[in-house]
Design brief:
- This protein is of the alpha/beta class and 508 residues long.
- It contains 21 helices and nine strands.
- A nine-stranded mixed β-sheet has the order 4-3-5-2-6-1-7-8-9, with helices on both faces.
- Strand 8 (215-219), helix 7 (239-255) and strand 9 form a beta-alpha-beta unit.
- Helix 15 (374-392) runs antiparallel to helix 16 and helix 17 (416-428) crosses helix 18.
- The longest helix has 25 residues, at 316-340.
- The protein is globular and about 80 Å long.
- The two termini are 24 Å apart.
Length: 508
């Protein structure tokens, strides 16, 4: 990779501390993309983490661990490492239930973060970082999350000496410690600190704001949205999901251009269906509920209290277990599926529940926004870290040497993706002012990996896409030459090349 080569080439030309920082940047470039799951306290972040990983490992009840940043990454041996602020590490086994131990047996005030290693296929391509909730009364927990989102040093805080034994200082470590992408969890109402957290999130340093290329949001607990709160939702086949989808679209409009999209999800149902929490015994209990008179079950599903206290053949304790795993919405979905197909198997019922959770759409969007362009996101984050490390050195000559090397790199044709990410960030942050329609186009071209989505023509034929991309390439070239300000022209040349490369790809 060109950024990695730049780091290796510059290491002998900079100070020992800066070279150590470049070494950490190189390590990060070779590692999976680091995605932080963030949001307000009790928004269901840890439940969503478990659903994404497909294993119930992140604690969801308030305890020591929920006050710490936890990094879930691939490992050949399942284990937990407690990483202390001074760089020490203590290895712990997972608890008997497969989760991170509720009590760590250490003073958490001395703990930097937790590293959880799992033999899990999902984590081979993506490190998932669970964060303490914003809005918590625990100031230290909030600080840990804000540090991670703002790259203030709560990521890898172990000292990494270079060949000369030089350790990264706090400033250098801060420049490379932040997550590279964020999955932000919101519930029904977006608050000011949600917007502030997204604004503060950076891929590697405070110089790169979050944008649609490295941030998406999910509307969690979508089943709690009242259909009557959204006009027309009650007349649809699935009023709750319709209402949640409409609200998610409104939230997307509010949060843009900070995020690529907002998608509804029910993480509790997703976690139970994906992590093995839903069993054949649960399926049989649901069959018992499906056998009840429709009006009786409809009454029971009015509230959790009625559902668990109503007299019926399914024991109250069993119903409480179903409620804890699926909530009322999941129970209703499962019962509807059983009534529609009485012979449905437990496995098929689990898949139905997973489909109803919205997790598949979230994963698909993660693949489009993050996974498909992970190398570009990491490279852009790495360049930002390299720049920050050079500035932190305090040596003007070193700073200029690094700056010149980056300019040479960005001038090369193979660096187009980096220039596109840079242009996207400039427009998304408002640093370059563009007309609204052109802003939308830049965001669309730069935020998608799918060609149809990039061109705003999903489902279009290859010929249609090729003709449109060539037409837009010509338009943006003219705009860059004749109608743009110098700052706009810089962006326009990049967009022109993006369209031209798409046209070449389609013609090939």
């Amino acid at each position: 990779m060109s950024v990695a080569n730049l780091c290796r080439r510059l290491q002998p030309q900079v100070s020992a501390r800066t070279a150590a920082g470049f070494g950490e940047v190189l390590r990060r470039l070779g590692a999976p993309l680091q995605v932080a799951v963030a949001g307000r306290i009790k928004s269901g972040k840890s439940t969503l983490v478990n659903a994404l990983i497909g294993r119930r490992v992140a604690p969801t009840d308030v305890g020591e661990c929920t006050r710490l940043v936890t990094r879930f990454q691939y490992g050949t041996v399942d284990r937990v490492e407690v990483v202390f602020a001074d760089g020490r590490k203590q290895v712990l086994p997972f608890a008997a239930d497969g989760m991170i131990p509720a009590e760590l047996g250490v003073d958490i005030a001395e703990v930097s973060h937790l590293e959880a290693y799992l033999t899990n296929a999902v984590l081979q391509d993506m490190t998932v970082i669970d964060t303490p909730g914003l809005g918590s009364l625990d100031a230290a927990s909030v600080s840990r999350t804000e540090q991670l989102l703002g790259a203030a040093g709560s990521g890898d805080s172990g000292d990494d000496p270079d060949e000369d034994g030089t350790e990264l200082d706090d400033t250098s470590r801060s420049a490379v410690a932040g997550a590279e992408a964020v999955l932000y969890v919101v519930t029904q109402g977006i608050r000011a600190d949600d917007q502030q957290a997204l604004a503060a999130f950076t891929a590697a340093t405070a110089s790169r704001e979050a944008g649609p290329v490295n941030a998406i949001a999910v509307l969690n607990k979508a089943d709690t949205i009242a259909p009557e709160s959204v006009a027309g939702a009650e007349e649809t086949g699935n009023p709750v999901w319709t209402a949640a989808t409409v609200l998610a679209e409104k939230q997307a409009a509010t949060l843009k251009p900070r995020v690529a999209d907002v998608l509804p999800v029910i993480s509790l149902v997703a976690e139970s269906a994906e992590s093995g929490g839903f069993t054949s015994a649960d399926a049989e209990a649901l069959r018992g509920l499906a056998a009840l008179e429709p009006d009786v079950l409809e009454t029971m599903l009015l509230s959790a209290d009625i559902f668990t206290t109503w007299e019926c053949d399914v024991p109250s304790g069993t119903r409480l277990r179903l409620l804890e795993k699926l909530d009322l919405y999941g129970v209703r979905c499962a019962v509807d599926a059983i009534r529609a197909e009485p012979s449905i198997t437990a496995g098929a019922l689990r898949r139905t529940l997973l489909d109803s959770s919205g997790l598949a759409a979230v994963r698909a969007r993660l693949n489009v926004v993050f996974a498909a362009r992970a190398d570009g996101i990491k490279a852009a984050a790495a360049l930002a870290s390299v720049t920050a490390l050079a500035h932190a050195s305090g040596d003007p000559a070193e700073r200029q040497r690094v700056h010149d090397a980056i300019e040479v790199l960005l001038a090369k044709p193979e660096a187009h993706q980096l220039r596109l990410l840079e242009a996207l960030t400039l427009v998304a942050s408002g640093a370059v002012d563009m007309p609204e329609d052109l802003t939308e186009e830049v965001l669309r071209v730069g935020s998608n990996a799918d060609l149809g989505a990039q061109l705003g023509l999903p489902g279009g034929s290859r010929e249609e896409l090729a003709a449109f991309s060539l037409e837009r390439a010509g338009w943006w070239r003219s705009f860059a030459s004749f109608g743009a300000t110098p700052a706009q022209s810089r962006v326009a040349h990049v967009v022109h090349r993006a369209y031209f490369l798409i046209w070449q790809q389609l013609r090939a």
